[in-house]
Amino acid sequence: MAHPLPGAYERELFKQADVVFTGGRSLYEAKKLHHRNIHPFPSSIDANHFGKVRLAPPRPADIAHITLQRLGFFGAIDERMDLDLVARMARARPEWNFVMIGPVVKIDRESLPQLPNIHWIGGRDYSLLPDYVASWDVGIMPFCKSRSNNPSQKRPICLVAPD
Length: 163
Fold this sequence. Notes:
Layout: H1 6-16, E1 20-22, H2 25-31, E2 38-40, H3 47-50, E3 70-74, H4 83-92, E4 97-101, E5 118-122, H5 129-134, E6 138-139, H6 155-160
Parallel strand pairs: 1-2, 3-4, 3-6, 4-5
Protein backbone atom coordinates (compact mmCIF):
# COMPACT_ATOMS: atom_id res chain seq x y z
CA MET A 1 0.00 0.00 0.00
CA ALA A 2 1.25 3.46 -0.87
CA HIS A 3 2.20 5.82 1.92
CA PRO A 4 -0.71 8.21 2.64
CA LEU A 5 1.55 11.23 2.06
CA PRO A 6 4.01 10.11 -0.62
CA GLY A 7 5.51 13.57 -1.18
CA ALA A 8 6.21 14.09 2.52
CA TYR A 9 7.56 10.56 2.86
CA GLU A 10 9.86 11.04 -0.13
CA ARG A 11 11.18 14.35 1.23
CA GLU A 12 11.94 12.65 4.55
CA LEU A 13 13.79 9.84 2.80
CA PHE A 14 15.80 12.36 0.79
CA LYS A 15 16.81 14.11 4.02
CA GLN A 16 18.07 10.85 5.51
CA ALA A 17 19.84 9.50 2.43
CA ASP A 18 23.53 10.10 1.72
CA VAL A 19 23.09 9.14 -1.92
CA VAL A 20 20.07 8.58 -4.20
CA PHE A 21 19.94 6.47 -7.36
CA THR A 22 17.00 6.85 -9.72
CA GLY A 23 15.56 4.13 -11.91
CA GLY A 24 16.21 6.07 -15.10
CA ARG A 25 16.89 9.39 -16.75
CA SER A 26 13.35 10.83 -16.56
CA LEU A 27 13.07 10.13 -12.83
CA TYR A 28 16.51 11.62 -12.33
CA GLU A 29 15.46 14.78 -14.18
CA ALA A 30 12.34 15.05 -12.01
CA LYS A 31 14.24 14.59 -8.73
CA LYS A 32 17.71 16.04 -9.32
CA LEU A 33 16.97 19.31 -7.54
CA HIS A 34 15.73 17.49 -4.43
CA HIS A 35 19.04 15.95 -3.34
CA ARG A 36 22.68 17.02 -3.55
CA ASN A 37 24.03 13.54 -4.39
CA ILE A 38 21.63 11.98 -6.90
CA HIS A 39 22.55 9.79 -9.88
CA PRO A 40 20.60 8.16 -12.73
CA PHE A 41 20.82 4.39 -12.85
CA PRO A 42 19.19 3.51 -16.19
CA SER A 43 18.00 0.08 -17.23
CA SER A 44 20.33 -1.94 -19.37
CA ILE A 45 20.66 -5.33 -20.98
CA ASP A 46 23.30 -8.02 -20.93
CA ALA A 47 24.15 -7.95 -24.65
CA ASN A 48 26.39 -11.04 -24.48
CA HIS A 49 23.69 -13.08 -22.75
CA PHE A 50 20.83 -12.08 -25.05
CA GLY A 51 23.07 -12.10 -28.12
CA LYS A 52 22.73 -15.90 -27.94
CA VAL A 53 19.35 -15.44 -29.65
CA ARG A 54 21.20 -14.93 -32.93
CA LEU A 55 22.69 -18.43 -32.57
CA ALA A 56 19.18 -19.94 -32.84
CA PRO A 57 19.19 -22.00 -29.65
CA PRO A 58 16.76 -24.92 -29.45
CA ARG A 59 13.12 -24.15 -28.61
CA PRO A 60 12.42 -24.94 -24.95
CA ALA A 61 10.46 -28.20 -24.55
CA ASP A 62 7.72 -26.62 -22.46
CA ILE A 63 6.63 -24.40 -25.38
CA ALA A 64 7.39 -26.78 -28.26
CA HIS A 65 3.67 -27.50 -28.65
CA ILE A 66 2.84 -23.80 -29.18
CA THR A 67 2.48 -23.16 -32.89
CA LEU A 68 3.62 -20.17 -34.93
CA GLN A 69 2.93 -17.15 -34.81
CA ARG A 70 4.42 -16.63 -31.35
CA LEU A 71 4.37 -13.24 -29.67
CA GLY A 72 6.36 -13.19 -26.46
CA PHE A 73 6.88 -11.20 -23.32
CA PHE A 74 9.21 -11.69 -20.38
CA GLY A 75 9.23 -9.73 -17.17
CA ALA A 76 7.05 -9.13 -14.16
CA ILE A 77 3.37 -9.56 -14.89
CA ASP A 78 1.90 -6.88 -12.68
CA GLU A 79 -0.44 -3.89 -12.52
CA ARG A 80 1.41 -2.13 -15.34
CA MET A 81 0.45 -4.77 -17.89
CA ASP A 82 -2.58 -3.93 -20.00
CA LEU A 83 -4.37 -7.25 -19.58
CA ASP A 84 -7.36 -5.98 -21.54
CA LEU A 85 -5.08 -5.20 -24.49
CA VAL A 86 -3.59 -8.71 -24.34
CA ALA A 87 -7.08 -10.23 -24.30
CA ARG A 88 -8.28 -8.01 -27.17
CA MET A 89 -5.25 -8.93 -29.30
CA ALA A 90 -5.74 -12.63 -28.56
CA ARG A 91 -9.43 -12.47 -29.49
CA ALA A 92 -8.75 -10.44 -32.63
CA ARG A 93 -6.00 -12.80 -33.79
CA PRO A 94 -6.79 -16.33 -32.59
CA GLU A 95 -4.06 -17.69 -34.89
CA TRP A 96 -1.45 -15.81 -32.85
CA ASN A 97 -0.04 -17.37 -29.68
CA PHE A 98 0.99 -15.16 -26.78
CA VAL A 99 3.81 -16.65 -24.69
CA MET A 100 3.87 -14.71 -21.42
CA ILE A 101 6.88 -15.42 -19.20
CA GLY A 102 7.24 -14.04 -15.73
CA PRO A 103 6.04 -14.11 -12.17
CA VAL A 104 2.59 -12.71 -11.43
CA VAL A 105 3.05 -10.02 -8.76
CA LYS A 106 0.87 -7.29 -7.26
CA ILE A 107 -2.21 -8.60 -9.08
CA ASP A 108 -4.48 -11.60 -8.65
CA ARG A 109 -3.60 -14.52 -10.92
CA GLU A 110 -7.36 -14.87 -11.51
CA SER A 111 -7.31 -11.51 -13.35
CA LEU A 112 -5.18 -12.94 -16.19
CA PRO A 113 -7.22 -13.45 -19.36
CA GLN A 114 -7.69 -17.15 -20.03
CA LEU A 115 -7.89 -17.80 -23.76
CA PRO A 116 -6.60 -20.78 -25.75
CA ASN A 117 -3.91 -18.70 -27.43
CA ILE A 118 -2.54 -16.99 -24.30
CA HIS A 119 0.07 -19.07 -22.48
CA TRP A 120 0.96 -17.81 -18.98
CA ILE A 121 3.97 -20.03 -18.34
CA GLY A 122 5.33 -18.42 -15.18
CA GLY A 123 8.86 -17.37 -14.38
CA ARG A 124 11.83 -18.98 -16.04
CA ASP A 125 15.49 -19.01 -15.13
CA TYR A 126 17.37 -16.00 -16.50
CA SER A 127 19.90 -18.30 -18.19
CA LEU A 128 17.10 -19.76 -20.36
CA LEU A 129 15.48 -16.50 -21.51
CA PRO A 130 17.46 -16.27 -24.78
CA ASP A 131 16.11 -19.69 -25.78
CA TYR A 132 12.54 -18.52 -25.24
CA VAL A 133 13.08 -15.22 -27.02
CA ALA A 134 14.63 -17.01 -30.01
CA SER A 135 11.45 -19.06 -30.37
CA TRP A 136 9.22 -15.98 -30.75
CA ASP A 137 8.27 -14.26 -33.96
CA VAL A 138 7.67 -10.94 -32.19
CA GLY A 139 8.47 -9.55 -28.76
CA ILE A 140 5.81 -7.41 -27.11
CA MET A 141 5.64 -4.97 -24.20
CA PRO A 142 1.90 -4.71 -23.43
CA PHE A 143 2.09 -2.06 -20.72
CA CYS A 144 -0.47 0.64 -20.01
CA LYS A 145 0.73 4.14 -20.65
CA SER A 146 1.76 5.68 -17.36
CA ARG A 147 4.50 7.79 -15.86
CA SER A 148 5.87 4.75 -14.03
CA ASN A 149 6.65 2.81 -17.20
CA ASN A 150 10.21 3.23 -18.29
CA PRO A 151 10.73 3.42 -22.08
CA SER A 152 14.17 1.87 -21.63
CA GLN A 153 12.45 -1.43 -20.83
CA LYS A 154 11.85 -1.75 -24.56
CA ARG A 155 15.58 -2.06 -25.29
CA PRO A 156 15.88 -5.79 -24.51
CA ILE A 157 13.19 -6.63 -27.07
CA CYS A 158 14.85 -4.44 -29.72
CA LEU A 159 18.26 -5.94 -29.06
CA VAL A 160 17.24 -9.58 -29.12
CA ALA A 161 14.76 -9.49 -32.01
CA PRO A 162 15.63 -12.35 -34.37
CA ASP A 163 16.44 -11.53 -38.00
